[in-house]
């Protein structure tokens, strides 16, 4: 009974036949190195290693602000394929940005390089920058803005839905127009309450 086995040693293929009492070499071949081809580099990353022949390995790394998902190394196999799967570089995530009282935040996709913008609610004014950026370390970069109470001159905080009950309200308004484009004095209004009784 004969059993034939093949073994690869470096660039040699050795075929052995086993009999009942001995081992017989039936072939020894020198063959060109098995090549797996360039495995490529992940987007936003790089590959280290330039030998793509059998039993050689390459490693992968990501640029700043990105993290590797998948194997960090692959090896060229005898069947001319690379071990494992091709890794990818994903942007580093940031936690949810800080909430700013009396403000609305715009933006999304809280990952490296993303921006969020803040705008204050009516009656408030922004102090500081309006933008934060997700940094390479997963932390928000920039000073968190603050919305301060702000009432410009002449604007009343009176409830516009209010009614006068049991009194008269007289509005006195004035202003002068010189032409359709020019105003001599800005329009302004005053009010006075008269109580009945």
How would you describe this structure to a colleague?
By secondary structure, the chain is mostly beta strands. The chain folds into 3 domains: 25-91, Complement Module, domain 1, CATH 2.10.70; 103-149, Complement Module, domain 1; 157-196, no CATH class. Helix content is 0%, strand content 47%. Strand 9 (103-107) and strand 10 (115-120) form a beta hairpin.
Q: What's the helix-strand series?
A: EEEEEEEEEEEEEEEE
Q: Give the beta-strand count.
A: 16
Helix content: under 10%
Structural class: mainly beta
Total number of distinct structural domains: 3
Unreliable spans:
none
CATH architecture of the largest domain: Ribbon
What general form does the structure show?
A: rod-shaped
Please, what is the CATH homologous superfamily of the largest domain?
A: Complement Module, domain 1
Strand order in the sheet with the most strands: 9-10-12-13
Strand portion = over 45%
Q: Class of the largest domain in CATH?
A: Mainly Beta
Largest sheet: 4 strands, antiparallel
Radius of gyration: 38 Å
Question: Multimeric state of these chains?
Answer: single chain
- The whole-number mean of residue pLDDT values reads 80
Span of the ends, CA to CA: 128 Å
């Amino acid at each position: 009974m004969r059993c034939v086995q093949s073994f690869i040693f470096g660039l040699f293929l050795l075929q052995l036949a086993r009999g009942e009492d001995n081992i017989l070499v039936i072939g020894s071949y020198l063959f060109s190195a098995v090549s797996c081809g360039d495995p490529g580099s992940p987007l936003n990353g790089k590959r280290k290693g330039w030998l793509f022949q059998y039993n050689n390995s390459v490693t992968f790394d990501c640029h700043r602000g990105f993290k590797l998902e998948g194997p960090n190394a692959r090896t060229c196999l005898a069947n001319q394929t690379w071990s494992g799967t091709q890794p990818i570089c994903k942007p580093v995530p940031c936690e949810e940005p800080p909430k700013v009282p009396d403000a609305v935040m715009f933006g999304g996709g809280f990952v490296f390089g993303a921006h969020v913008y803040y705008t204050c609610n009516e009656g408030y004014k922004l102090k500081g920058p309006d933008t934060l950026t997700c940094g390479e370390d997963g932390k928000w970069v920039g000073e968190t803005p603050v919305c301060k109470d702000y009432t410009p001159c002449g604007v009343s905080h009176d409830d516009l839905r209010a009614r006068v009950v049991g009194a008269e309200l007289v509005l006195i308004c004035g202003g002068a127009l010189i032409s359709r484009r020019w105003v001599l004095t800005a329009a302004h209004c005053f009010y006075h309450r008269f109580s009945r009784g």
